[in-house]
Amino acid sequence: MALVVLLAGWAGGRLRDLRLDRTVPALAVPGLLLVAGTLLYITAAEHGQLSVISVLGSLFPVFTVALGVGLLGERMSRAQAVGVAAAMSGVVLIAL
Fold first, then answer.
1. What is the rounded CA–CA span in Å between residue 73 and residue 82?
2. Contact yes or no for 57/41 (Cβ under 8 A)
3. Contacts for 34-42 with beta carbons within 8 Å, 24 or more apart?
4. DSSP 52-90
5. Has residue 82 got a pLDDT over 90?
6. Which of 39, 56, 68, 83 is disulfide-compatible with 74, CB 3.0–4.6 A?
């Protein structure tokens, strides 16, 4: 898919508009984090109970909210707070 987008940009003459000094790190960091997360998930699936790991792995929205609050100074909405509380309650119930 990335190759198709790259070729379309090249054919349309839009690649010269890319600023590689800004674009590459902006794309490389999230890509590397995604690969690291996937490798950690696979490692956990090999060594742990998949029923617990799949639930914990599906909690990524909670981490997204936490990072938004912690790093960006965003305020948590009431709906987000209820969602985080419900997700954590579910984890506690599954762990019992």
1. 19
2. yes
3. none
4. HHHHHHTTHHHHHHHHHHHHH-PPPPHHHHHHHHHHHHH
5. yes
6. 68
- The CA R_g of the chain, rounded to the nearest whole Å, is 19
With residue 26 as reference, give the H or E element that holds it. Answer: helix 20-47
First to last CA, the chain: 43
Q: List % helix, strand, coil for the chain (3-state, nearest 5).
A: 85, 0, 15
- Which residues fall within 8 angstroms of residue 75, CB to CB, at 6 or more apart? 69
Burial of 76 (0-12, 13-18, 19+ CB in 10 A): middle
Residue that the structure tokens 């690291």 belong to:
36
95 φ, ψ (degrees, to nearest 5): -70, -20
Task: In whole angstroms, give the CA distance from residue 3 to residue 6.
Answer: 5
Average pLDDT rounded to a whole number, residues 20-27: 73
- Residue 5: both structure tokens together: 């987008």
